Amino acid sequence: MTNSTFYSKRKNAIPIRSHEKDNQCNLCPNRCNHFKKVILILLAFVAGINLTQAQWQRTNGPYSASPITCIAVSGTNMFAGTGANGVFLSTDSGTTWTAVNNGLTDTTITSLAVIGTNMFAGTGANGVFLSTDSGTTWTAVNNGLTDTTIVSLAVIGTNIFAGTGSGGGIFLSTDTGLNWSNPFNGSYISCIAASGTIILGATLGGGILLSTDTGATWTSRSTFPGQVVSFAICGANIFAGLNAFGGRVFLSTDTGASWTLSNVFSKPITSFAVSGTNIFAGTSGGVFLSSDTGTTWTAVNNGLTDSTITSLAVSGTNIFAGTDTAGVWKNALSGVITTAKEIPFNKDFSIYPNPAKNQLTVVIANPVSAGKQSIALDIYNVIGEKVLSSSLSFGEGRGEAVDISSLPSGVYFLEMKTEYGVSTQRFVKE
Questions:
Q1: Count H helices, E strands: the chain?
Q2: pLDDT tens digit string along 37-90?
């Protein structure tokens, strides 16, 4: 952690004066100095609180030999599914975790979902299990579920959907898992997501399935050049995360009819979480945050010792991240969002001309925000393939030229990386 200096800018703060004859205290000649020390200690304490809010903190587990595959919240209970050790429960925001696997005959947990007080667990080979007592006991609920390889669960009201991975497609239960129907069959599903009356499914071949009537009818949408592993639905905006070509995020504003590339990450996408208008993306290279509908993304990994993120979840005022080897971590939403907004790199990075022919100029208005260092630069095409790499050194207000004459005409994404995170901008090569 780097050392920081903090300054008080409170408009109506009481001024701290040095000794004045009319204010000296006979009992304590150094009263003013003591007062200054108290103020400085208080400022440092407050600054320390703010810094803590912007840092990830490791919870007390769950300690297992397998990754945290999913996280779900039911009231004050938080459940974490693991890749080989079943389900763990925390009732105190991660301070303690307890294994709750009584009745689970398959401890490879792929997905968790909540309907009221009912907790559902999707497993790798034995279908869906239901707990009505906060995980104390589990019962298999697989009547009509002809494909028991569950890869993803999603909920709309009292309906629960199960995406399956052995060709069974998508299943639906309208009675708390007691019975299942198969409204869309014959596909290998990689993930599903639901919001309102909309449910999305992704196939292993990169196809997108859409239902706008709670699963009654389905249509095929665009096909991606890679496997979609996670969706996030935020109002009219749908984000799709891919693990191909190092990881990409696509955005649709028309219910999946068309998609635009939002960002290219250097690591595969694993998960999303939504808090208001803030979108968090979990990757095998840490957590990234966008507060502007995916236009820019900022790394928010301060304190994380395991950057391989396997799952994300928002609960109350905190965001939780499941990791590959280090259990579950948490961070205060207010702290991480504020920290990301204070990082100046994204807004100070500009490119011109756009469109460009043979040369692109990159400018960082404030090189202090870039750390006065050589900055890695990568250019990707629209299908996420890296087509050019370079490094640039900046002086204040000075642009650095990038030779793009070798690139074919088309749309590209220029990605720059500093210690503050990753910033991406779109440009057109004529």
A1: 3, 35
A2: 443 334 433 444 333 346 999 999 898 778 999 999 998 899 999 999 999 999
Domain boundaries, position 308: 57-342
Contact 324, 310 (CB under 8 A): yes
Q: What is the identity of the amino acid at 194? A: A
Q: Tokens for 330?
A: 């948490």
3-state secondary structure of 88: strand
Measured CA to CA, the distance from residue 119 to residue 132 in angstroms comes to 6
Residue bearing the bigger pLDDT, 102 or 42:
102
196 and 329 fall within a common domain? yes
**Structure pTM?**
0.75
- Does 421 score more than 70 pLDDT? no
Give the total number of structural domains in the chain. 3
- What CATH number corresponds to the domain at position 282? 2.130.10.10
Q: Note whether residue 215 is domain-resident.
A: yes
Per the DSSP assignment, residues forming a β-bridge with 350 are: 363
Q: Which residue has tokens 């290219």?
A: 264
CB 421 within 8 A of CB 345: yes
Burial readout 17-35 (b: 16 or more C-beta within 10 A, e: otherwise): eeeeeeeeeeeeeeebeee
187 lies in some domain: yes
Same domain, 325 and 353: no
- Asked if the model's pLDDT at residue 360 lies above 80, the reply is yes
| Residue 79 and residue 48 share a domain | no
* Number of Cβ atoms within 10 Å of the Cβ of 324: 16
| Residue 416: pLDDT band with limits 50, 70, 90 | confident
- pLDDT, tens digit, 9 for 90 and up, residues 260-288: 888 878 788 999 999 999 999 999 999 99
- Asked whether residue 11 is assigned to any structural domain, the reply reads no
In three-state secondary structure terms, 79 is strand
Residues 218 and 352 in one domain: no
